[in-house]
Amino acid sequence: QQTRKPTRKPTRKPTNAPHQQQPGVTYFPGKLKNKDDNGLSLSLGLTSRIIAHKGKKVIYNSGNANQAKSATVFHDEPDAGACFEEGGGGWTYVSNSELDDEKGGVGAITFDNNG
User: How many CB atoms lie within 10 A of CB 95?
Assistant: First the structure.
């Protein structure tokens, strides 16, 4: 969809359709279940998946036996992260790393709408 030049006054029709309803709750924060297969205590309704290991290349989930890997290794000592929605239903996980001697930094892994 092409970006339109801003108008000086409100348009007659909305340029984007408003959301008709809120998404349903899929999990309940704080209602922890027993540890999952990865050893994490998660709220009911959530699951986990290990996507990277420090110092190793990230394996792309391409669905075939010869899975591709990232060109660089995942950074050491990841200590914080966040997810950002991308266009087309995908998202990007951004991870922070703080190490001595300016060796820390930020890494990111981008996912399509299928994860």
Answer: 20
Q: Which residue bears the tokens 């984007």? A: 16
Rounded Cα gap, residues 103 and 73, in angstroms: 14
Domain definitions of the chain by residue range? 57-111
CA distance 42 to 16: 36
> What does pTM read for this prediction?
0.61
Cβ 51 vs Cβ 78: under 8 Å: no
- Residue pLDDT, tens place only, 90-107: 889 999 988 888 878 888
| Angle of CA points 74, 76, 82, to nearest 5° | 65
Cα-Cα end-to-end distance for the chain: 24
